[in-house]
Amino acid sequence: MVIEKFFDLTIELIFGFFALLAITKFLGKTHIDQITPFDFISALVLGELLGNAIYDENISIVYIMYAIFIWALLIFIIEKITQKFRKTRKILQGDPSLIIRHGKIDYNVIKREKLDINELLSLLRQKDVFSIREVEYGILEPGGKISILKKSKYDNPTIEDLNLPEKVTYLPVNLVLDGEILYDNLNAIGYDEEWLKNQIHMYGVEKIEEVFYAEWKQDEGIHVVPRNDKK
Hints:
Blueprint: H1 2-27, H2 37-55, H3 61-84, H4 89-92, E1 97-101, E2 104-105, H5 107-112, H6 117-125, E3 135-140, E4 146-150, H7 159-162, E5 173-177, E6 180-181, H8 183-188, H9 193-201, E7 211-217, E8 221-226
Antiparallel strand pairs: 1-2, 1-3, 3-4, 5-6, 5-7, 7-8
Helix pairs in contact: 1-2, 1-3, 2-3
């Protein structure tokens, strides 16, 4: 009887291990940096489902398979929804927040994101930045990490080391994401849809829907990335 229980537990553990491995590969979450808070919670729930099923003698391996399949299916559906409908990403994945602008901390964003100054400094140190004065722009990503754009004189190698004049640092502005125009950003830089279409035509792209990503930078102009199925 004891041997039989150990045998059943071994089978369930082996199955659970490979089932979670298969789901991870299937959903494409191969790196911990890719995991959003929603993915983290989903992983905890999935692990709890599997753990309870394995150590509950009244639950068979069929129920384990069913629980894992349903939860993985729900995660997959959410991933597809966020890929297809851009407006759902803010609700399900969150939006990046501009937390440092022109070297100044936006305290309204700090408060909204429930982030204190010590946490902010810790995030900056993880990016090898030990003073806020080095940062021109700082963006808090949905996953909780921070992306920074340094001021030109603090970039490596530094402008001062090369005895070059200091340059103004500009933040890239997203204009097109997944074939959809971000009209607020387009209006903010002083251009209209007709101008944008003329610009993408220079890249050999006929329609906005064929653009995967497009950004504009004041000192470098527009950069367009067509979808993979376009040249």
